[in-house]
Amino acid sequence: MDEIKSIIGTILQDAIQDAIEANELPITTPPDIPFSPTKTPDHGDIATPVALGLAKSAKMPPRTVAETIHKHVDLEKHSIISNLEIAGPGFINIYLSNEWLFDTIRNILKEQQEYGKSDIGLQKKIQIEFVSANPTGPLNIVSGRAAAVGDTLVNLLNAVGYDAVREFYVNDAGGQVERLGQSIDIRYRQALGEHDIEIPDGGYNGEYITDFAKEIVVEDSDTHLKLSDDERILLFKEKGIAHLLGQQKTTLERFGVNFDVWASEKTIRDSGKPDDIINIFQEKDYLYENEGATWFKMTDFGDDKDCVVIRTNGEYTYFVPDAAYHLDKHDRGFTKVIDLFGPDHQGHITRLKNFVKALGLSDDWLEVDIIQQVNLVDSDGNRQDMSKRQGQFYTLDLLIDELAEAVGERYAVDVARYFFLMRANNTHLDFNIELAVTQANENPVFYIQYAHARCCSIFQQAREQGFEIKPVEEVNLELLDAPQEHELIRKAAEFPSIIISSAEDREAHRIPHFLHDLAGIFHPYYNQHRVLDLSNKDRSTARLILVECIQTVLANGLRLLGISAPESM
Asked: Which numeric CATH code is attached to 2-96?
């Protein structure tokens, strides 16, 4: 469709230039041609409001401008257009010839699984960091949304020709993992009979900590009590990170997300790169000492206050290894880096961008997008608090388990992923788990999947009834003359441009909306028109070609979302 718009845009620009040269349109040069969709196929395939935009400079009524442009379009010369009509105050409605519809069919059948893909990314290396949950507990549903969005964005970027990779940054250093080790230590000692000790402030109270500590007791008994407190806490920190990170990896694999890279904060710290960051900032005169701490001149970059990068005890604040991690990304050759953060990191975005700028990287090298909060609500619509440290959170595994009880393990992940993907990233998502489970069978993903399964069923029936499935070159596509058939083809033709806009705008939700719309055209079409008709085999053969196209587009779209395309349901 983008190619069609480009061709038609050139035709209209040429017509405007002819009108200028004939002194019928008092402007200097033809403008770019904007396009808009039409409300119904009766109003054409696409429309342009170009006449409305030219009316002021031409000092003419927009409808007169439209009629002048229309006059200079030679329909006999441009067979791609079957008709032009002036509508309303001056819109030009454009009716395309059937040939472009049939070219769309031929293109889909030729490209099959490649249909919708493009090479606009020119294999530029892009890294998307997402989820990156602290290894201090199981993944919750907030991480589930980030996982679904990030994974789909990587699919989209790769589909349009980028070399995009998935990366998870493991925060396995710093205060939070120290508190993890302390929390496991307390539960371990309590399991061995010490009852006058409590989880430290900021520690982790979840049952998963207690359960893990009991597992250590079962495996190792009280042998770790022989260690000093520091040695024992260090051991439990390392055990806890390995255990919980392993759980997170298992959950993500179950959810259909497989990261290409697992980066480690501890590795970044041990590499010496944080020291390099400090040296770079010192050389550029971005640092100063005050009250025993080292400060970064954040105000030099327009911020309202500076920030500490080295505490009075000599330890780096988290800004330094974070800046070092992003320098490491650059050193690995990524031309663009996209960080998907949760809303609680909103205040960190400006400072991180300023650090990247201070390192001499371009303003557009780092892009940070916010994946808005998922709020767990009860049956009365009241939001429930979710906190790892307090042990009050709803895990992604539990969500999949409960969905599996309702729809089976086969479709549980499909339902969850679709639920997370169907709304824009920047909108809050109130998640009523009771409603999600009870209405799982009504989830719109099944509406799309059933359209795909119905296509597969049609071909199964065709084989059973002895229909010959011919190559498209031997099929009379002119027999696809029903309005709904043209509507289906037009919709399928939008798919490549939808992928491009979804990838470039980082809006994964456009794909499920497109697929739902396509299924919404196909289901009524199937109910109103006989695809398999032994009394009219030529028409049936043409309709089988159309069904194969719709099946291909649905499967390709579901694949981008990481959702299955079942052959039967």
From this structure: 3.30.1360.70
